[in-house]
């Protein structure tokens, strides 16, 4: 099943469930809402009638007065009204009045006069001073025959002397309820349909975009030349860019091209020196000169060998996706070993070495890589530190990492060179010889630090340069 179809099905499920619950909730609220509004109107009508009938009720002249005729005429009226598109051709209110004992003394329908209604809640509760209302079926077997009754007290100086009840059948409200439900269903179905259409278009667009990207990846894997799909911003554009960058890196064109050009340039000088010295050695010359040319060949060969070895080490680290082992390496012991290995150079330049690394500080990583990285840093520092200069190792714990710092007394690094020090093959002339190194040492250090999940920073400080490594 395609991703677009899966997204569409999930979208359909979400829209369907949301629409169902919303519509079901609203539909369930329509009928009670209409009845509540009608009941509120019945309350007003009942209280109005209680005030209108009060004087005649007190005088006992309701049945003798014109009220029976008026109510009968009211029940026979035909309003011929159209309410929100629905016709209303008859009135539906029934009005009856009971005395203080619950006996009906006036009924607009004329069927209940003289009957005892004291047991019905609209009369019973009203006579007790409470809100009296009920909903009763006129036909016990027909749920649609329920009628709402609302009572209002007739008072004489605060005393309840009778009850006026206004009743309205719920069936008269059903056309409005049905009409509202139909419209709601139509509008709800329309909105759900539009939502599903929008979801289908979105799924189609996303599937098409991913299909273009998939086709591009397949074409690249088959070695065909294709253009990367273009998208107008967003995550798809970022994904396309990332895939293109990954393709470039996997093909290694830029990587190999840069290495080949630079390596060719770096090897050109020592090869030229070796060839020139070899040609001169073919001729007769004094022993002193012969030894000097032989020494040149040896030094240039060592330089080529160092360049190739460092390049291989760097390529190996760059291709790594993670560490092969993680062990605890005592930092102070590692630094002591490196200083001991460089003791001849340190003594030859009469350097003052300071070490402030606690014996409890442990690095977690590959010992071989860590030794090579710190060794490259130390060699680089020795190249730039003048005779009788200062070399200082220090370290401290910072959270879950160790911050290791190497300071060497030297001239400040030019501002233009600081951001380029870790570039491949970039190097500054050594103060003692004026020659440049392979330019791979600091780049190797940076790759090892990244492989360990750390960071590296080189900066000018007072009287020298400080390299800071943060390692786990």
Automatic annotation (TrEMBL):
The keyword Secreted does not apply. The lineage of its organism: Bacteria, Pseudomonadati, Pseudomonadota, Gammaproteobacteria, Pseudomonadales. Its main location: membrane. This is histidine kinase. It is found in: Membrane. The gene is creC. One of its GO terms (molecular function) is phosphorelay sensor kinase activity. One of its GO terms (cellular component) is membrane. The chain crosses the membrane at residues 6-27, 184-206. Residues 204-255 form the HAMP domain. Residues 262-472 form the Histidine kinase domain. It comes from the Bacteria. Keywords: Kinase, Membrane, Phosphoprotein, Transferase, Transmembrane, Transmembrane helix, Two-component regulatory system. It catalyses: ATP + protein L-histidine = ADP + protein N-phospho-L-histidine. Its EC number is 2.7.13.3. It is an enzyme of class 2 (transferase).
């Amino acid at each position: 099943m395609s991703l677009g179809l899966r997204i569409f099905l999930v979208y359909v499920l979400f829209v369907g469930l949301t629409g169902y619950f919303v519509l079901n909730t609203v539909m369930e609220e329509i009928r009670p809402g209409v009845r509540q509004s009608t009941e509120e109107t019945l309350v007003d009508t009942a209280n109005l009638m209680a005030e209108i009938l009060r004087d005649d009720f007190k005088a006992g002249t309701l049945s003798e007065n014109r009220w029976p005729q008026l109510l009968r005429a009211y029940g026979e009226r035909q309003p011929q009204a159209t309410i929100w598109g629905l016709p209303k051709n008859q009135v539906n209110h029934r009005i009856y009045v009971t005395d203080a004992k619950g006996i009906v003394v006036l009924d607009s329908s004329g069927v209940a006069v003289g009957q005892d209604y004291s047991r019905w809640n609209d009369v019973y509760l009203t006579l007790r001073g409470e809100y009296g209302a009920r909903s009763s079926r006129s036909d016990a077997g027909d749920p649609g025959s329920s009628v709402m009754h609302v009572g209002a007290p007739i008072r004489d100086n605060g005393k309840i002397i009778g009850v006026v009840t206004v009743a309205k059948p719920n069936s008269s409200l059903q056309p409005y309820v049905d009409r509202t439900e139909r419209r709601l269903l139509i509008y709800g179905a329309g909105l759900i349909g539009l939502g599903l259409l929008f979801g289908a278009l979105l799924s189609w667009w996303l599937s098409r975009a991913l299909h273009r990207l998939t086709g591009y990846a397949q074409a690249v894997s088959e070695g065909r030349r294709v253009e990367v799909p273009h998208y107008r911003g967003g995550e798809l554009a970022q994904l396309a860019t990332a895939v293109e960058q990954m393709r470039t890196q996997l093909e290694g064109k830029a990587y190999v091209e840069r290495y080949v050009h630079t390596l060719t340039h770096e090897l050109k000088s020592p090869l030229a020196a070796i060839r020139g010295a070899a040609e001169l050695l073919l001729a007769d010359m004094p022993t002193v000169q012969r030894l000097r040319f032989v020494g040149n060949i040896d030094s240039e060969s060592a330089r080529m060998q160092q360049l190739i070895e460092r390049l291989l080490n760097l390529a190996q680290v760059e291709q790594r996706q993670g560490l092969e082992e993680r062990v605890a390496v005592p930092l102070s012991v590692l630094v002591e070993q490196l200083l001991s290995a460089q003791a001849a150079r340190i003594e030859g330049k009469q350097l003052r070495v300071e070490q402030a690394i606690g014996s409890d500080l442990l690095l977690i990583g590959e010992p071989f890589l860590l030794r090579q990285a710190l060794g490259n840093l130390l060699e680089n520092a020795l190249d730039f530190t003048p005779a009788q200069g200062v070399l200082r190792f220090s370290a401290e714990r910072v959270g879950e990492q160790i911050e290791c710092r190497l300071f060497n007394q030297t001239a400040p690094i030019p501002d233009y060179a600081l951001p380029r020090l870790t570039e491949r093959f970039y190097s500054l002339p050594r103060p003692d010889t004026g020659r440049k190194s392979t330019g791979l040492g600091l780049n190797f250090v940076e790759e090892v630090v990244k492989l360990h999940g750390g960071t590296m920073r080189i900066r000018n400080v007072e009287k020298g340069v400080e390299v800071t490594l943060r390692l786990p």
